[in-house]
Amino acid sequence: MSRVSDYAYINARLRARIGIMRSSDIIENMIKAPTLVEAVAKLDGTRHQHIADVYRSTGDLEAAELSLIEEQVASYREVVPFLPSESSFFMTVLLEKLEMENLKTAIRLWYSASIMHHSISDRAKYVCRTLIVHPIDYDRIMNASAFGEVETAVAGTPYKDILSAFTFESLSKSGLFPLEIALDHMWFSHLMEAIRKLPSVDRHLAEDIYNVDIDLKNILILVRYGYYYHLEGARLSEVIIPAGYIGTEAARRGVLRSDDPIASLKDIVHRRYPAITEEIDNIRRTADDFTTMEENARQIMLIENYLAAWRLKAYQRLLLGKPFSIGVVLSYFFLERQEDSMIQAVLSAKSYSWSEGKIREALGL
Amino acid sequence: MSMFTQKMKMLTAVVMENDRDSVVRALLRKGVMEFVHIDALPADKMSRLSSHSSSVPRAALTDARVRIETLMREAGIPLPDIESVDIDQLPPLDMEGYRRFLDRLSGSLQTIRAEQKELNEKLLSYSEIQRYAAEGKNEYLDLRTGTITHGSVKDLLSRLQLIDGIYLFDAEPYISLTFRRDSQRISDLMDKFGWAESPDPETQKNALPEALGKAKALSVEIQQKLGELSEDAKSKILESSDKLIPMWTNVRVHELCEHVESCFSYTKNTTLFSGWVPAEYADDISRIIYETTKGVSIVEWTDADSIPRDEVPVAMKSPKILRPFQRMVDNYNTPEYGSINPTPFTAVAYMLMFMLMFADVGQGLVLLLVGLIGSAVYRKHPEMKDGLLSRYLCTLLIYLGPASMVGGLLFGSLFGLQIPALWFPFDAVVEGEPVPGLINSVYDILAITIFFGIGVIYLGLFLNWINLFRKKRYIELVFDKNGIVGGVLYAAGIWFAYGFVRSGYRVFPSAPWFMPLIAFCLVLILVKEPLEFIIKKHKGQDAGTISHLILSTVMEFLVEVLEIFSGLLSNTLSFMRVAGLGIAHASLMMAFYQLAALPGNAIAFVIIALLGNVLVIVLEGMSAGIQSLRLNYYEFFTKYFTGHGIAFEPVGLRSRIVSD
After folding, report:
1. Which residues form the domain of A171?
2. Selected residues 44-73 of chain A with any CB under 8 Å from a CB in chain B
3. Is residue B453 part of a domain?
4. Which among B112, B119, B181 has CB closest to A121?
5. Mind listing the pLDDT tens digit for each residue in A91-112?
6. Residues of B whose CB is below 8 A from A44
7. Chain segment B152-176, per-residue pLDDT in tens
8. Cα gap B160→B148, rounded to integer Å
9. I want to staple A30 with a disulfide (CB 3.0 to 4.6 A). Which of A39, A358, B213, B247 is the partner?
């Protein structure tokens, strides 16, 4: 099969949907709506009609958000069969990300119930139990009293090996952070493996996009954990994802073994992303008082917004690039995810009666 | 119906400031005027005018309208017909009052949603309990039966109810069915009341089904209550419809007035405004302004002919019956002011093309019925959203069905079966059966469509000549590729090709006039640029340099010649698709009937033939529709439709969207 026959049909379909998505003013209308009820009504007649229907019949925003995740899974499932095998494997890995985030939510609930002794029943209802990629027994995780049961719930999936490296005691002592980072590392290694299997044109496109994605993740790790939470150099080396420009360059220079790994990492970031130098410098290492914490949070938000804009441009470039490649598919899912998270954010903000201005500021609009 | 775009006139009027609102409302009621900003006046005069400043910003009016519409849609309240409202009797605009009312209404809906949420949370818990029991995951459940040794059972129950679960505490022994993950909290609470587990195994055994039965009953009850609350939310809005509808009307009218007045300019005591009106309404508009202002106004009309053609908005007047085809034209572009109205020609050409490609009495009847039924359903349910078979498509099918039926009668086809033909039996010709008459092979069918194509192209060229003549573009009329010289060359080409085909593709025809005619036409094309250069020089306009003239003459000549020879040839051959689609239609039907005959069973025959017809109606029908549109857009419109016009958008009470 040629690249044209591989991608012609699905890309034409997705391009049409991208056109609708880009010309839509759902987010703007939702932000302008004075109340949550009216914001939800703006989803009528859009591809998110289902959310409006769920909200109208239950009044439950979390139930409506759960339906959004199910929509996302269905959307991936719809596209995968139309792709050539290497690309469909790659898309399955992308879907795995959604599953991993869902698994993290379930494990956080278990942690909350078993280690922190909090009630989780009110939140446990809203965990997506649909089969995403691997068979995970979410019921078992959220009802487990021992960590062994959580491991059993993910038996036969790639998550089993990761979870086996932890114990109830280690999690009680260190919290969920190491486990979540280990899961992230596993997913990024799956991603890199899937990218390597792609045909050359698609591989280059995916590398361009995901190297930036990994860089963004590493910058946030550096800022949040290295700079803000004073993570030691040794711990930082375990956390930084060993891929993308920053991860690869850090490994090449051996900066994580140096005396001041944070300064060296910052230097690498400055070379690649000079526009956020000021924001990174503005983050103060002493975060004890409320004003400093607020200011740091603001700087992190500015960095996040800058990086989000960078990603958006990268995905938009994909749309202008090779027409018969995986680029259109990647752009579609990026734009879809972006719209979905915007909708979720606006609905949450409306439920807290945030003003239009505050919502715009939070969304970086 | 007018053959050309409607003649327009530009109004400029001055009215007294205190008559302004009445004039605006009267003009909105008439709804035939497109207002324009007065910015073409000399700067010294403009500086003495002030622009409109409103008490309520238009954005605020739009936001309020959208808000009211959102709430009305939530309860399925249709937008009122604003034309039937006496807009002079509307109450004053109370934006603050409206906002308070809408906030209250929205707040009451929010309260209902909060109630729903509380119920839904319970429902999800009961569903989870029932699911665990159904899936045999009883280990995730915590079932307790027993009594308390101290304290009040009412107190215990009220505290337990904060934790998700089923509690049967009407009689002893009490039953509690909760999640194992909440066991600790349940135990802590029960211990405080001295909970003693029932030792009776029978009680323990019956407790689970009893609790699950209760969970099921409660789930049903909650689902019913949720439905009722949903309806309550709608009812709340419906109860307010007597306030919402007038509120919407008032806001909408003010929004329209604001839009109109934003185009006005003012002196201390007068208001100056301007706009385009179709010439046929000019007298009406003058009368409306004079009557409203009791003669204290100045009205001036400027004829569109004295204004550059590309600045005049274009209105086309086609009879209601041609509306589906008007939309095809609108989708393509807006014709230039003063040019031919393409709608009637599009209607005829489109239906003829469809008829030739999809000729079948039975299948045409199906299309007609689908169109009629679909339109009736949409008429009965005006709130219904357009599906795959949209309102427009249903209307179009009402035209295409009969066109297809006429084709079926001419070519003798009923659901792909041969019937006596009024012209020639299309299916028999495609099958290669001996047929008397002039048309007896697929080549003859192809020839018909080629002649049809030539007719369409010549019609396009002829319409272009009329347009150019009306626009007084005589150079283009004579020398352009779509002008007379192009038409002559096309005729020579047709004569040449026809002679070649007549000779059995052996000899090119020859005639003493042929080469001199071609040479003469080429010379005419070559002199077009120099002629335009001389005319511009003569009029004192910027004609460019001589070197530019030489270059553009050579380039223009090459491009024009290439376009005439290859363009017109490909345009003509493109019409072979009409025959192609017709032949494919006949062949597909033949294939389906052969397939249907294979099992040798009457029922199988009917089923396969039915499926074949459905498939052909859907796929071939769609294909013929798209190809007809394509031929109209690319082969027909390109000959005469410049699409340089600006659409006329009058503002009136009917206007759906108002844009600056």
Report:
1. 100-198
2. 44-45, 55-61, 63
3. yes
4. B181
5. 999 999 999 999 999 999 999 9
6. 73
7. 999 999 999 888 899 999 888 899 9
8. 13
9. A39
